[in-house]
């Protein structure tokens, strides 16, 4: 007979046919070593009676196991577990390794990668107030997007269905370079644009291709955890550069980390504090890059959302020496799940990046690029930006009212002329991580500021106001206010 544990879990209420359940149960028992090589199985008749299933069910399962080599039949003598199965294959790998006290073999690269903190809540399924970094998901022009997709999929040119240019679809690169020239003062041709899977791929590619393991780079402190993670996983030394009201303190960098080979900056709207990098600092940074042969990685992730005046043009437009790599994304201006971004590369780097990109994921997805290109060409993109700009300005004003009404005094806010979130700086004696936990218990999402620092961490909370309609914000503000008033 069979050992009692084998096939103990046959379940007639499942959608899975019984012969597959018998097959799966026997296969697992063989792989785990419960049924050893050369073990003689009961006859199909005995087994069907024992399990209370039809003989045909058992026959079907045996047939499949014979076909795959788990069982062998000996003429006139019944069915056996294959006698030649090597020892190494008869247990689940995790069990085998665990029993031998062996950790699964990972590369040194993978072990380093596992040390890197990725982000605070990338995989958390909470799209609720006041999660930061979230555009207004529900206000996306779904109908227009659906129509564009339907049309492009109806009769797509073969060029969009096969392998294409690793740089990306030319009409999309043309639309992006036109937009950047007109709106951001970026100087580029479509040839300099490389479509990426969000800015994260761009940051990762740039850090791996332009710097070697062990090289140093300047990063705004506090700064964007997604970028920091990309740099650390490439083995770079991240040198924290403090900020003042003009943004990154370039002279501090020159004095304390002169060996750095790259600077990562968010000049138009510093993440997370929202400072604009002054013109003086931009020129200092460019001068440093020119004199030391360093690179500047300019992350322009949400410059579209400025509510007063015009944003300062991109740093890239001031670069005379081909030192700036401009990083853009559609994650904030459209949706994070569109997974589309771009790099604007100095001409001398284009071939290198094309080469590397082809090795990673060959090229961006065809039809999605055509849809986005048309959305940009037909005015839908500009229209969406205008709508969102006005919506987010209103939402910020509304959030500030709610904060005044519901939040305790120790949680102060200042209006901001740009962006999608506000930062509240906390006084002595507060722990932002504890408050994040308290907020979570009250059903509200906020982000702690302190993990964004590498040195002299300050406590604060980030509130994303852009992504949530008034009714959701009212409820969240009320619940959070209640929870926080009990705190102190
Ligand atoms: C500074 C910064 N850059 C870029 C991004 C967007 O990343 P991705 O384009 O990979 O979605 C974010 C999103 O939170 C960000 O805060």
Structure, explained:
- This protein has 488 residues and is an alpha/beta fold.
- Among the domains are: 4-90, Orthogonal Bundle (Arc Repressor Mutant, subunit A), CATH 1.10.10.10; 113-117 and 160-378, Type I PLP-dependent aspartate aminotransferase-like (Major domain) (Aspartate Aminotransferase, domain 2).
- The chain is built from 16 helices and 13 strands.
- The strands form three sheets. It has an eight-stranded mixed beta sheet, sandwiched between helices.
- The longest helix has 27 residues, at 380-406.
- The structure holds pyridoxal-5'-phosphate.
- Residues 133, 198-200, 224, 226, 266, 271, 299, 301, 329, 331, 336, 341 line the site of pyridoxal-5'-phosphate (PLP).
- This is GntR family transcriptional regulator.
- Residues 16-84 form the HTH gntR-type domain.
- In the C-terminal section; belongs to the class-I pyridoxal-phosphate-dependent aminotransferase family.
